[in-house]
Amino acid sequence: MSKREMKGVSIRGATKRYGQTVALKETHLDIKPGEFVSLLGPSGSGKTTLLGLLGGFVTPSAGSIWIGNKDMTYTPPHKRDIGIVFQSYALFPHMTVGENVAFPLRARHQPKASWAAKVKEALAMVELDGYQERNIAHLSGGQRQRVALARAMVFEPSLILMDEPLSALDKQLRESMQLELRRLHQRLGATIVYVTHDQSEALTLSDRIAILRNGELVQIGTPQELHNTPKDSFVADFIGDATLLPVTRVDSHQIRLGSHTLTSARPVPDATELFLAVQTEKLLIDSAAENATANRLEGQITDTIYQGNSVRVCLRLQDGSLLTLRQPTHYAACQQLPAVGERLQVSLHPEDTIVVPRCT
Ligand SMILES: Nc1ncnc2c1ncn2[C@@H]1O[C@H](COP(=O)(O)OP(=O)(O)O)[C@@H](O)[C@H]1O
Ligand SMILES: [Mg+2]
Asked: Which residues form the ABC transporter domain (predicted)?
């Protein structure tokens, strides 16, 4: 399977209501050809509904869905040229691996003579060539998910949709499948829309991530954009590993946190309720920070938790607010870490001093 003409996707003012329930508020979303976009949000936030609009399983209450340059709003799923992978593999248990992968070719009435070569190619992509005659029942969970992937790609769709395809797998397998998906995407140049509630998965895979909450697309951006300029307290809390502390606005670049005045490199939003969103890894123990412009905070260590790849340190500031920082566990860093009960000075760079309004 070669790199092919991939199609972009455009959701234009689509909404979905079920009776009184609004599953998806008015949504506008443009996805570029070849882009990998994740839909990330808690359970019930509207991810599957949005994916269903693209796949054609869900008809919008208003608005339209465009794939390539065509209005596909009322086109049934099998005529949309889309490959789909769900959480449950949805493979046919009574068919062999090869028959499962050939199924979309049969359904699309492609000439039978071409099936074997296409199946072989699709299976090779997921490193399962040679498994054609195997029984589905004898495969591991990871192998089944790879068969499901091969089946979604065998007819060279212009768009691939995936709904939590790895969530049934254990952590180790999930992580290796994530890397495999990443490589596959790079190799195929496929347009992929991927539903997940796991932020690390979204970060690993995506060019851009769309954050959903209560049926609303709150923000879409690259992983860096979401980290550095979260739109509100929901995004700041959902992305990364942050502590949110209430602060007051002093001026366009300064805030007050208890007795501390902090400078932010970015404009402080002009809202009544503001939070400082501090990512745990952005706080540096002061002796290591030479930067004179950095914000300084001082508190008492209430807890240190060794977590293998990092140490979490909980710090109580003078006004009582609790801050968490994460330190590397190499020898030098551990040496400079005071004991529980002792005072600690930390610094936060103005570029890492992120202030967000409360989500509405
Ligand atoms: N067929 C349906 N009938 C009624 N309500 C639905 C239906 N599908 C989804 N919903 C509701 O729409 C909201 C969004 O659901 P969904 O898109 O499945 O969320 P997610 O995939 O993010 O968990 C939820 O409140 C859900 O209960
Ligand atoms: Mg869902």
From this structure: 9-239
Ligand 1 pocket test, pick from 49, 87, 238 with the greatest ligand atom count within 8 Å of Cβ, gives 49
Does the residue 3 lie in any domain? no
Nearest by Cα to 295 from 250, 343, 256, 239: 256
Q: pLDDT band for 290, please (50, 70, 90 cuts).
A: low
- Domain at 344, CATH number: 2.40.50.140
Q: Which domain holds residue 319?
A: 241-357
Task: Compute, in angstroms, the gap from residue 197 CA to the centroid of ligand 1.
Answer: 14
Question: Does residue 189 contact residue 207 with C-beta atoms inside 8 Å?
Answer: no
Nearest CA to ligand 1 atom 25: 44
Q: What is the pLDDT of residues 52-72, one digit of tens each?
A: 999 999 999 999 999 998 999
233 falls within a domain = no
For residues 215 and 202, give the distance between their C-alpha atoms in angstroms, rounded to a whole number: 19
* Cβ neighbours around 75 below 10 Å, total: 14
Nearest alpha carbon, ligand 1 atom 14: 46
Same domain, 254 and 161: no
Q: Are 301 and 161 in a shared domain?
A: no
230 C-beta closer than 6 A to ligand 1? no
Ligand 1 near 46 CB (within 6 A): yes
Picking from 194, 225, 256, the residue at the C-terminal end of a domain is 225
The encoded tokens of residue 330 equal: 């190499």
